Amino acid sequence: MGVKDSKTEQLIKDTAKRLFLTEGRMLATTQDIADAAGVNRTLLHYYFRSRDVLFDLVFKEALRELRERIQSVMLSTAPFREKIENLINVFFEELIKSPYLETFIVLQMNQDPGKYEELFRTLPGGEQKMKIFFKEIQAEMDKGTIPEMKPIHFFMNFFSLMAYPFVARPIYEKMFDLNDAAFKKLVRERKKVILLSLFKNHEV
Amino acid sequence: MGVKDSKTEQLIKDTAKRLFLTEGRMLATTQDIADAAGVNRTLLHYYFRSRDVLFDLVFKEALRELRERIQSVMLSTAPFREKIENLINVFFEELIKSPYLETFIVLQMNQDPGKYEELFRTLPGGEQKMKIFFKEIQAEMDKGTIPEMKPIHFFMNFFSLMAYPFVARPIYEKMFDLNDAAFKKLVRERKKVILLSLFKNHEV
DNA sequence: GTCTATAGCGGGATAGAC
DNA sequence: GTCTATCCCGCTATAGAC
Which of A56, A192, B121, B164 is deepest in the core (most CB within 10 A)? Predict the structure, then answer.
């Protein structure tokens, strides 16, 4: 493969990524993608064999990146509260880059939960890592900085507070008559709000 | 229309509802629905003209019911904390009946935000009603029972904590190796957890 | 590596017999 | 009101020329 080849291949992949993850056009056809990339539709098949393969590729790549960034923060040695702040920053950063990634994940997993299970199933050694994070959560409860609950509930709370506004974005936009700028402003504010809501010490 | 007619019509609608909302088969074809109902596929067109019409009918009905139940609690005269408890109960009751309703809403709104806007846009007089609820939230902050934030953030927090676990269900099931019973148990526990997380007085 | 042409299928929808 | 037969379209995918 020469330089020119891989350039076209990359162009198609990037375009697909943009349509799927940034613009939320999850049902974009091969023709849509080819048009947006300005190439002949057959090239999509030439490089990726089928729409499914391209689709999975984009999805898995984005998901792997998000997971790795989150995991690396989750397993860092930072103090608990700082770790939570870092997780919020990473999550929001990724979700602002790919506003539809979260919706995309939810959709895919609901459509065919078996297909991507290896992406979520605890990795070798991962279970141990999750336990370490859960132990940290428990330690915070013992210190009294967060309310008493099973660590898994704290975990669910955390991700619910971060992720839901992104998947429910169009609903909130209608409900409260928000434009793009207003929504983004809310999202920025939420970084503090989430901290405020997770910790018992209600000061920021 | 005789009795027999409307019986078939109802059967098709109920089956579609079951596939779409209970089993999460949101991409079920007209053939799938007809097969599941045990009727000829043409009857679906006979009664509902097109798949789209049937689809919208099911979606709008379910959504209207959920919205009405939530609104009636939200605007009741119950004390704030009791009102929140009632909202949690109503929401969970509906979501356990139709586990995919929330995912369905999110998906539809992301797919085509304009199509269903009248279902979310503030109704005539609705804006006023929302303002009343927001005033109640503000009053609670003044009393010091919930942390200080814009009411809209409290609102988002509340619905995030309730709704996200339902849309992310397949993810959590993989991630923590949960079976159906284990997930349902977690959801039941969350009623208390959500209360615990919303209010400053961290006792239940 | 890129194009044109075409095959093939799955799905929605309708006509018309019963 | 219910069925069979058929049409039509959009989309994926591939063969084969350049």
Answer: B164
Q: Which of A109, A147, A150 is facing B170, going by the closest CB pair?
A: A109
Q: How far, in whole angstroms, is CA A108 from its chain's centroid?
A: 13
Report the distance separating Cα A48 and Cα A11, nearest Å: 12
Q: Decide if pLDDT at B1 tops 60.
A: no
Residue pLDDT, tens place only, A149-195: 999 999 999 999 999 999 999 999 999 999 999 999 999 999 999 99
- The pLDDT of residue B68 is above 90: yes
Superfamily of domain B56-198: Tetracycline Repressor, domain 2 (1.10.357.10)
Residue ranges of E strands in chain A: none
CATH architecture of A1-49: Orthogonal Bundle (1.10)
B46 touches chain A (CB under 8 A): no
Tell me the shortest Cα–Cα distance from B109 to chain A, in angstroms: 6
> For residue B193, how many other CB atoms are within 10 A of its CB?
21
Residue of B nearest to A161 (CA): B160
Q: Which of B164, B177, B200 sits opposite A164 (nearest CB)?
A: B164
pLDDT digits over B92-103, tens only? 999 998 999 998
Is the Cβ pair B24, A110 closer than 8 Å?
A: yes
Inform me whether the C-beta atom of residue B66 falls under 8 Å from chain A C-beta atoms: no
